[in-house]
Amino acid sequence: MSPSKTSTLSFDTFYNIVDGKQRSSKEIHHGVNPSTGEELWDVPIGSKQDLEDAVAAGKKAFPAWAATPIEKRKELLQKFTDLFNEHTTEFTELLCKEAGKPKKFAGIEVAGVGGFISFHNTLNLPEEKFEDDEKVVTTRFTPLGVVGAICPWNFPLILAVGKFAPGLLTGNTVILKPSPFTPYTALKLVELAQQVFPPGVLQAVGGNNELGALLTTHPDIAKISFTGSIATGKKVMEASAKTLKRVTLELGGNDASIILPDVDIEKVAPEVVMGAFQNTGQVCVATKRIYIHEKIYKPFLEAMVKFTATLKTGAPDSEAPLGPIQNQMQFDKVKSFFADSKAKGYKFAAGTPDVSASKGFFIQPTIIDNPPNDSRIISEEPFGPIVPTQPWSDLDEVIARANDTNTGLGACVWGKDVAAAEKVALRLEAGSVFVNSWEKPTPQAIFGGHKESGIGGEWGNTGLLSFCNAHVIHVYKS
Fold first, then answer.
1. What CA–CA distance (Å, rounded) separates 361 from 356?
2. Which residue range or ranges hold the Aldehyde dehydrogenase domain (predicted)?
3. What is the CATH number of domain 16-251+453-474?
4. Could you give the CA distance from residue 168 to residue 65 in angstroms, rounded to a whole number?
5. Distance (Å, whole) CA 18 – CA 61
6. Which residues contact residue 160 at a Cβ distance below 8 angstroms, ignoring those fewer than 6 apart?
7. CATH topology of domain 255-442
8. Is the Cα dihedral 78, 83, 88, 90 positive or negative?
9. What is the mean predicted confidence (pLDDT) over 229-238?
10. Rounded distance, CA 330 to CA 203, Å?
């Protein structure tokens, strides 16, 4: 069906979506507006039966959806994009309330939904042929079945579409589980999609951690796509192993940025700061450790401190570039890094060690000057607006320091000599390395981590294959 220009959608009632229909529940929970601490709307907690019904509906819808030509699937994805674009204002306002994002950055995330789908609609699955005198061997890639997509709270819209767009494009059916901290935009996104896709193709069942565990053990779920913490990712992989599910795990990071001595300090320092503090530091590929050459350490740090002082925090409508921490649990975790740094006597170059109480979960961006290598702020991921800097003098040694971590999601190298910077980038053990930019993952390239930052990857043409099985036909000529 073509999207109607009079499409209506209520943005103050929320449902799970099972087999094309809205579902409520006697059990409810609430998101919290992180700017005010106030409870938001009721959200149903999906039951085991809700999940069973969703899996059955996805399994039932799968054969017809998998047999739908890819061009038709692309057409429906584009119709959904057109329909979504009728509601960008409402989705932006909703994202501001549930995630606390500044309106400008919430708008960027909302705009990314259409951009993400449109790019994936330019892709096609590869087909490989080999022929000799005896046979013709054709390799194709076929969909897996029902995919469970477990989404995080830091980018609830773009990371949801980052799972279901390639999942649906490749012919799978998808059940989305939004984070209980940010359930609203994802549930509304899937509700809207029912005007375009057949029942059971894209569903949403939100709830608690118990629901996620049921997804990972269900025998009729073919794959789990999970974005979240390393600790939870290990549990997902362990549970999924019981049924040999395919898994893609995009987990935590502790990204290093190496600043070479030839950089333009006034130009680069603010960019490095933005890499650390964008989305209030709540980004898996945010800059988490900054290594500055000793020749420029003091002036570069001073330039960072100067720019950091201009970064105010505030509610979405305040024009402040940084919002609050999204939830109380994360707020308390980030505060523990402040408390540890204060207790150990580390130098606070920017910000203050004391996080004052307020009605929202606000923390001013903070820089820790040259803490030791074994400090928590160096070795662990805060996932908030606090970042350490350290000087370096020997290139081999700083590369070893950058790689001395159990994670490997992203990294950055900054330098005027781009060829020299690229040589450094090649030696960094991370899935995505950025030269002369802070971390900006793009749907045009596969996104995944090395080491404990994940298993596999998604996005881009290569990422499509993570939603497929290889299917090889050998035809013998005689």
1. 10
2. 26-471
3. 3.40.605.10
4. 9
5. 12
6. 149, 151, 176, 178, 185, 186, 189
7. Aldehyde Dehydrogenase; Chain A, domain 2 (3.40.309)
8. negative
9. 96
10. 28
Stretch 395-410: mean pLDDT: 97
Residue spans per domain, the chain: 16-251+453-474, 255-442
Classified as helix, coil or strand, 361 is coil
Those residues with Cβ within 8 angstroms of residue 368's Cβ, 6 or more apart along the chain or in another chain: 341, 346, 347, 348, 349, 377, 386, 387, 388, 389
Q: 207 CB contacts (<8 Å, ≥6 apart)? A: 29, 44, 45, 46, 47, 177, 180
Q: What's the pLDDT score for residue 3?
A: 39
Q: Which residues pair with 138 in a beta bridge?
A: 129, 473
Q: Which residues are CB-neighbours of 242 under 8 A, at least 6 positions away?
A: 217
Question: Which residues are catalytic, by number?
Answer: 250
Calpha distance 471→142 (Å, rounded): 7
Q: What is the pLDDT of residues 78-106, one digit of tens each?
A: 999 999 999 999 999 999 999 999 999 99
Who's near 89: CB < 8 A, 6+ residues apart? none
What is the 8-class DSSP label of residue 121? T
Q: One-letter amino acid identity for 112?
A: G
Quick one: pLDDT at residue 7? 58
**Distance between CA atoms of residues 55 and 200, nearest Å:** 8
**Beta-strand runs (E) in 182-277:** 202-204, 223-227, 246-250, 255-259
Q: Calculate the CA dihedral of residues 443, 448, 449, 450 and round it to 10 degrees.
A: -120
Q: How confident is the model at residue 304 (pLDDT cuts 50, 70, 90)?
A: very high
pLDDT of residue 6: 45
Burial readout 60-73 (b: 16 or more C-beta within 10 A, e: otherwise): ebbeebbebeeeeb
- Across the beta sheet with 202-204, what order do the strands follow? 21-23, 16-18, 202-204, 173-177, 146-150, 223-227, 246-250, 454-455
Strand 202-204 to 255-259 pairing: unpaired
Residue 69's pLDDT is: 97
Domains 16-251+453-474 and 255-442 share a fold: no
- Measured CA to CA, the distance from residue 329 to residue 222 in angstroms comes to 31
Taking the C-alpha atoms of 202, 206, 212 and 216 in order, what is their torsion angle to the nearest 10 degrees? -20
